[in-house]
Amino acid sequence: MSVVPNPGNGKITVPELLQRKTSAAGSPSNSKKIVCLTAYDYPTARLLDEAGVDVILVGDSVAMVALGYDSTLPVTLDEMIHHARAVRRGTKHALLVADMPFGSYHSDTAESLRNAVRFVKEAGVEAVKVEGGERRLELIARLTEAEIPVMGHIGLTPQSVNALGGYRVQGKTPDAAEQMIRDARAVEAAGAFAIVLEAVPRELAAQITRELRIPTIGIGAGPDCDGQILVVHDLLGLTFGQTPKFARQYANIRPIISKAVRGYCDDVRGGTFPSDGESYHAARMAMEQQEAPVNSDGDW
After folding, report:
1. Phi first, then psi: what are they for 266, rounded to 5°?
2. Which among 197, 168, 1, 152 is positioned nearest to 81, based on CA atoms?
3. Is the distance from CB of 248 to CB of 235 less than 8 angstroms?
4. In angstroms, rounded to a whole number, what is the distance separating the alpha carbons of residues 242 and 74?
5. Which DSSP helix (H) or strand (E) runs through 219?
6. How far does the chain reach from its first CA to its final CA, in angstroms?
7. How many CA within 13 A on the CB side of residue 174?
């Protein structure tokens, strides 16, 4: 079992995020935006955490950006827990949230609760995220009753890609906007501590943000939300194919990786790697062993 870091020393908690929303309502000038990113492995999580990210989401987007699937639907509960455990080991400061994958909360509530409990006990996550609005009211209420914090997600919900007919902006018509407002209110009423708004018009996201008492986290929802989230691979230029309009690229490390690997290939094929200085020598090793015996962990 992974151990959840103790609050304090800058550790982000669910109550603190809720307090930020309360403080912002009292004085918008004191608003402190919530910074969220995805991570799927230990080194990435550690780098994000040390950089000061508030919330790290082990997103089911791992299916597309790390596992090569065409959608988020194929990733399994066991795979998500595997990645969440790795991220837990690299996270000390940020609040750790994990996506419940498609199929893990779509049957009866008892099984959904068992699956959420697995995330907490086996991966050490501090909250789970579920997609859907009014239809998730009972589920969110049951999870929060079991003291598992829940982050909601409405708008473009990737697990509904087949029902939506593709990845499209949601809430563009008056009826669709009204339904989204009802969904947001239902998620809040059920006990969620925050809600992701994905691919919705800025004006609608701003209205929902004003009306809710819980923080809104935008992704393709404009700058008026209480926080923002991006897929880290989009931010770093590590995705293949077309990226969404809202996915600002802060670095492009793909050519850097490609250049490094090509250099390695050239050196191996040309016989220049490893060099003599990067090799071990029998006489030197015998001398070093006499002076300082190798410990049980080996000598590198």
Report:
1. -60, -40
2. 1
3. yes
4. 21
5. strand 216-219
6. 30
7. 0
Residues involved in catalysis: 198
CB 190 within 8 A of CB 170: no
Nearest to 181 by CA among 149, 203, 159: 203
3-state helix, strand, coil split of the chain in percent (to 5) is 45, 10, 40
Instruction: Per-residue pLDDT tens, the chain, 300 aa: give them.
Output: 455 555 557 899 999 999 999 887 756 555 699 999 999 999 999 999 999 999 999 999 999 999 999 999 999 999 999 999 999 999 999 999 999 999 999 999 999 999 999 999 999 999 999 999 999 999 999 999 999 999 999 999 999 999 999 999 999 999 999 999 999 999 999 999 999 999 999 999 999 999 999 999 999 999 999 999 999 999 999 999 888 999 999 999 999 999 999 999 999 999 999 999 999 999 766 666 666 655 555 555
Match 């404009």 to its residue by tokens: 222
209: nearest Cα among 25, 82, 27, 7 = 25
Q: How far is Cα 225 from Cα 209, in angstroms, rounded to an integer?
A: 6
